[in-house]
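Weekly sync, protein design subgroup
Attendees: M.S., D.O., the rotation student, P.L. (late)

Item 1: inverse folding check
M.S. brought a backbone from last month's batch and wanted to see whether the design step gives back something sensible before we order anything. D.O. pointed out we never logged the input encoding, so this time it goes straight into the notes. Structure tokens as presented (67 positions):
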């Protein structure tokens, strides 16, 4: 659960960082570039997070079935 909360915090912080960058954007092209960059980085982060959570869940299941 702590891992999921950590991921959620990281994702919220990334969204706030994007919002700050969007406020400072000079034009529509910069906004689109920032959004595209954010989407790519969030997809990569979510894939990594899903793998880590899956491994954590698998370890928990394995540990529980050993008892």
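Designed sequence read out in the meeting:
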């Amino acid at each position: 659960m702590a891992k999921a909360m950590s991921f959620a915090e990281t994702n919220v912080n990334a969204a706030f960082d994007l919002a700050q960058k969007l406020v400072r954007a000079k034009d529509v092209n910069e906004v689109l570039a920032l959004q595209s960059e954010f989407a790519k980085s969030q997809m990569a982060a979510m894939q990594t997070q899903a793998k880590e959570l899956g491994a954590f869940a698998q370890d928990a299941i394995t540990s529980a079935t050993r008892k």
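Discussion: The helical segments are 2-24, 28-66. The mean pLDDT is 94.
Action: P.L. to compare against the previous round before Friday.
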